[in-house]
Every structure is written in C-alpha cells, then in structure tokens.
Amino acid sequence: MKVLVTGGAGYIGSHTCVALIEAGHQPIALDNLCNSNPESLRRVAVITGCEVPFIQGDVCDEAVLEQVFAAHSDIGCVIHFAGLKAVGESVAKPLDYYRNNLLSTMSLVRVMGRHGVKKIIFSSSATVYAADNEMPLREDSKTGSCTNPYGWSKYMCEQILRDVAKADSAWSVVLLRYFNPVGAHPSGLMGEHPNGIPSNLMPFISQTAVGKREKLSIFGNDYDTPDGTGVRDYIHVVDLARGHVAAVDHLLRHSGEAVFNLGTGRGCSVLELVHAFEEANGVTVPYTIAPRRSGDLATCYADPTKSHTELGWQAQYDRVDMCRDTWNWQRKNPNGYDE
Ligand code: NAD
Ligand code: UDP
Fold this sequence. Notes:
Layout: E1 2-6, H1 11-22, E2 26-31, H2 39-48, E3 54-56, H3 62-71, E4 75-80, H4 87-92, H5 94-114, E5 119-125, H6 149-167, E6 172-178, E7 180-182, H7 201-209, E8 216-219, E9 231-232, E10 234-236, H8 237-253, E11 256-262, E12 268-269, H9 270-281, E13 287-290, E14 299-300, H10 305-311, H11 319-332
Parallel strand pairs: 1-2, 1-4, 2-3, 4-5, 5-6, 6-11, 7-10, 8-13, 9-14
Antiparallel strand pairs: 9-12
Helix pairs in contact: 1-2, 1-8, 3-5, 5-6, 7-9, 7-11, 9-11
The structure holds nicotinamide-adenine-dinucleotide and uridine-5'-diphosphate.
Uridine-5'-diphosphate (UDP) is lined by residues 180, 199-201, 204, 216-219, 230, 232, 270, 293, 296.
C-alpha cells in the first residue's frame, strides 16, 4: 500500500520508511526539512534498494497537500510524524509549536478528508500522561496537565483526531504514544543527529563518549528510584518503526480511534544507561551529578500489554542493542548526515 509519511526525512520517519518497505508497502515522504536532511532518505534507498519518492513541502500548506494527493491518488493511509519536538524550545516559542503542530494536523486531516483518505497514524508521546499516575502507564491512565507547550500540542492533536473520528465513522485514527526513542539502524547508516547541544540523554551520552562533549550532567541522583537517578522506558527506533507497520495493519482492519503505547515496559535509570553504554562499547562516559532538571519526573515507563495484544507488536531490542547501535552510528557519522 502507498503510505504518505509526513516528516519522513526525520529520525523516526526515515526508520519507519525502511520498515514499511521491508513489509511490502510504498512510502512517500513529505518533509519541509526544518529539522532533517534528505540524505536520510538516500540512506533508506541504500538499505532497502528502493527509492522513496520525496516532496519537499510544508504540511501546514493545504495547497502542497492538495498537490501530493492529486499526484498520488492511490495513497491508502498517512503516518503523521511532521512536527516540532524540542521541549525546551517549545517553552521559549509556544506559538511556533502550537502553529506548526496543530495547523499541520488540521490541514492534513482536511485535505485527507477531501480526497477520501480517512486513515491516519499520529505520533504522540508519553508526555501527554499526567504526572500523578501510577506506573506503569496504561493507555487509559490519566492525561493532561502537561508541563510544556510541546506536550499540550500533542494532547490537543490527539483530541482533534479523536473528534474527527467521532464525527465521521469512516475515519480510522491510531494514536501512538512513544516513550523514549533511542538507537539507530544496525547498519550504522541511519540515526539521530540533534542540532546543537543535545537535550536528550542518549545523544548526550554518545557525543560525550566520542569526545564532542566534556562530560554528561546527570540531572539529579536523589529521586525515589533504586539508584536515585531518573527512570525512563528507552525504546529502540527500529522497534518503534515496526510498531508503525503493525499500526498500519490495524488501521486497515478497524475504524474509529485507538491509542497504543510504544514502549518496552522496562524502566532504565540514567546510571544504568550510562553503564550499559560503557560496557556495550568499551568506552568511558565521564559524568557529574547536577541538580534536577525542572519538570522532570522520577519514573516513567509503559505498560505495553495493549500493543502486544491488539497490534501483535512487542519490542525486540534490549538496552545493549540500543547502546551498540547508537555508538555504531555516532562513530561512523560524527556529523550526522552533513558530510
Ligand atoms: P524529527 O525532528 O527528526 O522529525 C520530524 C520531521 O518533521 C523533521 O524531518 C522535520 O523537518 C519535519 N517537519 C516538522 N514540521 C514540518 C512541517 N510543518 N511540514 C513538513 N515537515 C515538517 O523528529 P522525530 O524524533 O523523528 O519525531 C517524529 C515525531 O515523533 C514528532 O512528531 C515528534 O514530536 C514525535 N515524538 C518524538 C519523540 C522523540 O523522542 N524523538 C518522542 C515522542 C514523540
Ligand atoms: N538526563 C540527564 N542528563 C542529560 C539529559 C537527560 O540526566 O543531559 C536525564 C533526564 O533527567 C531524565 C532522563 O535522562 O531522567 C531522560 O531524559 P530525556 O531528556 O532523554 O527524555 P525525557 O524522558 O525527559 O523526555
């Protein structure tokens, strides 16, 4: 099936293009390259032997979307990754985040509806869950009370898509709540290259190991967790990509709205991840203990039972795989896709 992948040149989008091709689908990527490099899609072609048709354009622009759907009248469903995703930046530039993330979703759904394509998978996040839930987080755990505009934009997009599915029973909407995506394609050809100083843990660890950063600051070691550092559910990006293929199958069999966690169900502390990285790769990651980062939770991990039962999906890669593949990508591409 032809699948329109918005944000297809990005980190998760490009890995999902590989997984879609491997499952026999035909992805088409639409991306304005505001946070990516089209080289990622050339690497998809190297890995799979298939070129991904690419349109450079803004998903907020209905005229662009009209052209895409007119040129590809046989698109069967859309995976909507396109969005801005930096939590800190969203606090500084809330209007940019609300405009881009909400307008892209609304424009996309309007144009899809006009073309009779009523199947969409949306990239949501564990950040939509409220802070006072019991762990692990289930899809019916409480949502809302987000701590930043990025989180609210995901929460609002979920609500918009839910309302669209309620208003017209022909729609099928899958909301995927990702936990902490990390890792890279095992070939070392594709991975994540954050702009500037990474704010996420895994890219900071790998850039420290390669010598680009002097040392990692561990934000707090006095949390109520086994070793005092924050616990998260890290998930390999290839597992996440496979989760989207499972969601495409679900879309074809169901209408209405469904939400799924994509996580491993296993919590991992900052110190555990640092030590796993050192052991898996035979490197040292210098670190220092720093104050807690504002807005951080002690612990956040998924209950992935529903994804297993209803999507037939389960994470396969473990912590060692995540660390090895991140390092393989980092060493082979110290400047990401830039060279
Ligand atoms: P990414 O920045 O690598 O990919 C997003 C892509 O969307 C980029 O290629 C960017 O150029 C493109 N884009 C942004 N706005 C656009 C627009 N208006 N029109 C066209 N293209 C646009 O990020 P990612 O990590 O691959 O994340 C993909 C999606 O998953 C995002 O929606 C993100 O919020 C969500 N998500 C990511 C994480 C994570 O930790 N990486 C966690 C939860 C959810
Ligand atoms: N973290 C850290 N140092 C860093 C970046 C992150 O100690 O430089 C910690 C952070 O406090 C949290 C965990 O690593 O406990 C994961 O943070 P990340 O920003 O990667 O993801 P989040 O779950 O916050 O979205």
